[in-house]
Amino acid sequence: MNLLFGNKGEEFLDILYRINKYCINSKFPSLKNTIDKFNFDDVYDEILNYIDSIEDLLEEFDKFIYSYNFSEKTHKTEILYRIKAEDSLLGKWNKNIDKKRPLRKVCNDIIGIRVITNLSREDMINSIFQLCNGNKYNKLEIINFYENPKKPDDGYRGVHVYFKENSKSFPIEIQFWTRIDALLNFYTHEVIYKTNSSKELAEYSLLLRKWLYDLPSISSEIKMTFIDYLYEIVFPSIGGN
Q1: Distance (Å, rounded) from C-alpha 154 to C-alpha 144?
Q2: For the structural domain made of 9-179, what CATH number should be given?
Q3: Distance CA 114, CA 124 (A)
C-alpha cells in the first residue's frame, strides 16, 4: 500500500489521465514552439477552452479530493489544487519571454496540484516513485529538487511530477511537499519572491531551511511536533492559498 495515497493512488492518476486526454485546437501551433511565437491572449483563450472542456472531470476531481482529505489515514496527507489565474500566468509569461522557453514549459502548471504530507522526506520520495513506477502511465516526468536544487539554490525543495501522457495537451504539475517544505515555500513565495528575488534573499531562504532541519528531536512524551503545531494549529489554512 502506498504511504501517500493508500489504495487511492490509481484513482488519483486515472482522473488526471482523463483530464490530460484533452487536445488543443488543431489550428493551434505546437506547444513545443517558444512563447515569443505566440500571442498571450490567444494562448489564454485556448486555456479557457481547455478548462471549460474538462469541467465535469474537475468536478470529479473535487469530489475525489474532498473524500480523500477527510478520510481516516494513518499519515495525514492532503491534496490541494488550483487553476492558474490569468495575472499569475501573465507574470510568468513576461519573466520568460526573452528566454526562448517552449510554451509547454511555461504553461506546465495550468492545473497545479499540491500534495502535502507529514511523512518523512524519505518516505514521501519512496512513495512517489512507487506510485509513478507502479502504474500504466509511462510519461510521468519526475524532478527531485532535493537531489538537484535550483541554481542558485534558494532553499526550495520538493518533488515535482508532470503528467505528460498527451503531447497535445497542457501538462499537469503535481508538487509533493513535506510540511517543512510547505511552511517555507508558502512563506518565501508570499513574502520574499513577490517583493524581491535578490541573491541575498535567496540565501536567507536557504538558511531558513537549514534552521528548520536543525530543530531538536522531539521527546517521546510530546505528542505533536513543532512543525505539525505550526501547520495544523497556527496556520490551519496554509494549504488553501
Answers
A1: 15
A2: 3.30.460
A3: 13
Measured distance CA(238)–CA(241) in Å, rounded? 6
Residue 96 in contact with residue 106, Cβ under 8 Å? yes
Alpha helices, DSSP H, located in the chain: 9-19, 40-53, 55-69, 86-96, 103-106, 121-133, 179-187, 199-213, 226-229
Structural domain boundaries of the chain?
Answer: 9-179
Q: For residues 160 and 226, what is the distance between their CA atoms, to the nearest angstrom?
A: 26
Query: What pTM does this model have?
Result: 0.88
Distances (CA, A) of 201 to 96, 151, 155, 194, 205: 21, 14, 10, 12, 6
211: Cβ contacts below 8 Å, ≥ 6 apart: none
pLDDT tens column, 19-77: 999 999 888 889 999 999 999 999 999 999 999 999 999 999 999 999 998 875 656 88
Query: What would the pLDDT profile of 81-140 be if each residue is shown by its tens digit?
Result: 999 999 999 999 998 999 989 999 999 999 999 999 999 999 999 999 998 887 777 778
Cis amide bond preceding 102, omega within 30? no
The helix/strand/coil state of 115 is: strand
